[in-house]
């Protein structure tokens, strides 16, 4: 007689069988990139930002056609045709291209403290003071002493607790200090003169702590003041880090064959011994970012960048084939009004100068109850990787929209004219960095060269308009 199977056993078999089948399908979907998984998640959670990065070797279709590549004729061109526009009145026909609106040309620019009617205890740390003083239109004011104090503390104060920050593709750590400070730490992975391999996709590349530092300084020099203050520091893995991390992170520490103290971290993608993070032999350099405020009124909104890259060889994004893409974007709120579009143009110029292709999302503060607030320049880890290559596709937003703040254009022209070139200004700003030198020399030449390329793009916009 056939043995009767216990029904609960049968159900268990069905259950595990289906689970296994579903898992195999899921893995298949993710590997092949059909995108069913992300579509389902997107359908179920429409408001949620889904950041499905695919750290696999997938080609990106770059949108550059031959005729787009107009490399500037010469570094010696004074660009007088553009200069007259920033010193004088902008002719009517160019008023849609050169926009006479500085980011502080606003009726009011409250700080978080003012906007939220916060009372400030006189004993709070400089970091909290800095956080309370972030305003609707910039991260910190011009010629600011407080930021200097914050950076000094980040670079010297004693640590209290260190833990790995989950999420993202690469190891990063939240650092708590004895003085109540907090920072976001990204470790050094590459030497200053190690270039991003041109045959790698940029998102497979390590982030650069020195890129973060240099980018903060450049943002300040360009007068944007939208980046998070950032400083370099060396940390002793044996005496400063190991005793302060939790058991899980501590268990990933090891001594490398060459006698260096290393750890892998416990993140998803790059956290194994072939990607170990090592000291020299036990001192590890990193970037320390001032922590953004954490109170419930300082939350941030995450936006998909309209010109984000597709991260997939099967999916093509519209800006890659539609040169009129900007007209569409301009009709959509919040790009249809206020400062946002101009901020994106500044961001494209900034990213082009630092060589950052990784601007998939950007964030703004919700605090001020309006989208009329600055875009935070956050996550410049994939910058300053290729000093000999100028990635023109980063400038596509500028090329397709043909608009730029007059103040930004003036800054670029002033640096181009000299006597202080953009490279000189950055060199000057970086010279007292605790882990200086921050950049490999060729990056400075790249900056001045790229500045001309931006100017040439703007000149092209004016020409096209003239021909109409
Ligand atoms: N200084 C900071 N203070 C508070 N939160 C921060 C700070 N810097 C970054 N974050 C938060 O941590 C997240 C990850 O930061 P970041 O993008 O720099 O790391 P990442 O490793 O490059 O991540 P990803 O791989 O997603 O690009 C950000 O989205 C941001 O919300
Ligand atoms: Mn990143």
UniProtKB/TrEMBL annotation:
ATP binds at residues 170, 186, 207, 289-292, 363, 379. The keyword Nucleus does not apply. It comes from the Eukaryota. The keyword Lipoprotein does not apply. The active site is at 358. Keywords: ATP-binding, Disulfide bond, Glycoprotein, Golgi apparatus, Manganese, Membrane, Metal-binding, Nucleotide-binding, Transmembrane, Transmembrane helix. The chain crosses the membrane at residues 12-45. Residues 253-465 form the FAM20 C-terminal domain. InterPro entries: FAM20, FAM20_C. Mn(2+) binds at residues 207, 379. It is found in: Golgi apparatus. Its main location: Golgi. Its cofactor is Mn(2+). GO terms for cellular component: Golgi apparatus. GO terms for molecular function: ATP binding; metal ion binding; protein serine/threonine kinase activity. Belongs to the FAM20 family. This is FAM20 C-terminal domain-containing protein. The lineage of its organism: Eukaryota, Metazoa, Ecdysozoa, Arthropoda, Hexapoda.
């Amino acid at each position: 007689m056939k043995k009767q199977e216990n029904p609960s056993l049968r159900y268990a078999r069905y259950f595990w069988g289906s689970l296994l089948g579903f898992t195999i399908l899921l893995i298949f979907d993710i590997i092949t990139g059909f995108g069913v998984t992300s579509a389902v998640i997107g359908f179920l959670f429409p408001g949620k930002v889904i950041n499905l990065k695919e750290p696999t070797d997938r080609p990106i279709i770059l949108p550059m056609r031959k005729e787009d590549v107009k490399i500037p004729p010469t570094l010696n061109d004074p660009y007088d045709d553009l200069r007259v526009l920033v010193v004088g009145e902008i002719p009517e026909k160019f008023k849609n291209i050169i926009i006479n609106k500085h980011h502080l040309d606003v009726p009011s620019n409250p700080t978080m403290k003012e906007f939220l009617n916060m009372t400030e205890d006189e004993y709070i740390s400089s970091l909290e003071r800095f956080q309370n003083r972030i305003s609707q239109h910039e991260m910190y004011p011009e010629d600011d002493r407080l930021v200097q104090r914050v950076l000094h503390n980040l670079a010297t104060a004693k640590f209290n607790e260190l833990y790995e920050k989950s999420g993202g593709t690469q190891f990063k750590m939240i650092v708590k200090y004895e003085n109540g400070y907090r920072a976001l730490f990204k470790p050094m992975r590459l030497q200053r003169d190690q270039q991003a391999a041109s045959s790698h996709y940029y998102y497979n590349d390590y982030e650069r702590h020195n890129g973060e530092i240099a980018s903060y300084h450049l943002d300040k020099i360009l007068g944007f003041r939208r980046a998070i203050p950032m400083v370099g520091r060396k940390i002793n893995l044996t005496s400063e880090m190991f005793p302060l991390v939790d058991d899980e992170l501590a268990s990933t520490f090891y001594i490398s064959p060459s006698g260096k103290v290393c750890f892998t971290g416990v993140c998803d993608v790059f956290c194994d011994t072939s990607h170990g993070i090592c000291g020299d032999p036990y001192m590890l350099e990193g970037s320390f970012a001032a922590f953004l405020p954490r109170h419930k009124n300082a939350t941030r909104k995450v936006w998909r960048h309209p010109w984000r890259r597709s991260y997939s060889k099967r999916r093509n994004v519209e800006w890659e084939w539609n040169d009129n893409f900007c007209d569409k974007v301009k009709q959509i709120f919040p790009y249809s009004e206020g400062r946002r579009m101009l901020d994106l143009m500044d961001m494209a110029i900034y990213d082009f100068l630092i060589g950052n292709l990784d601007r998939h999302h950007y964030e703004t503060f919700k605090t001020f109850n309006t989208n009329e607030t600055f875009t935070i320049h956050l996550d410049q880890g994939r910058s300053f990787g290729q000093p000999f290559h100028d990635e023109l596709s980063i400038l596509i937003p500028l090329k397709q929209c043909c608009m730029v703040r007059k103040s930004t254009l003036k800054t670029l022209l002033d640096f181009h004219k000299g006597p202080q070139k953009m490279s000189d200004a950055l060199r000057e700003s970086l010279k007292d960095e605790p882990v200086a030198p921050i950049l490999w020399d060729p990056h400075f030449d790249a900056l001045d060269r790229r500045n001309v390329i931006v100017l040439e793009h703007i000149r092209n916009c004016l020409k096209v308009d003239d021909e109409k």
